[in-house]
Amino acid sequence: MAKFPKIVLLKLNEFSEDEKRAFLEEYRRKKKSTVFAYILLFIPFGWHYAYLGKWGIQILYFFTWGGFLIVWFVDLFRLAFVISNYNKDVAIKISQSMK
Fold first, then answer.
1. φ/ψ bin of 61: left (φ > 0), alpha (ψ from -120 to 50), beta (otherwise)
2. pTM
3. Which contacts of 55-59 are long-range, i.e. CB under 8 A and separated by 24 or more positions?
4. Is the pLDDT of residue 2 over 80?
C-alpha cells in the first residue's frame, strides 16, 4: 500500500473492506506517476505541470523556455517531491469525500 498521510490512515481504519477497496481503486485512478512526470519534464517545454493540472504555470513555463532553463533544472530535483505531495492531496480529498 502507498504511504498515506496519517489523517488518511485514521480514516481508512474506520472504513469497511468495500469502502477501503473503493478508496484504493479511486486513488489508483487519480494518482500521478513520478516516472511519467520525469518523462514529460524531458519533452521540449516540459509538460509536467500540465500533467498535474497546473495550466497557468505550464503556459508561463512554455513562454519562458522552462524559466530560462533555471526552473527546469530546479524541477529536475524537486519533481518527485511535487508528485508525492500531489498524490497525498489526492488521497486526503478522496478520503474526505467518502462517507
1. alpha
2. 0.89
3. none
4. no
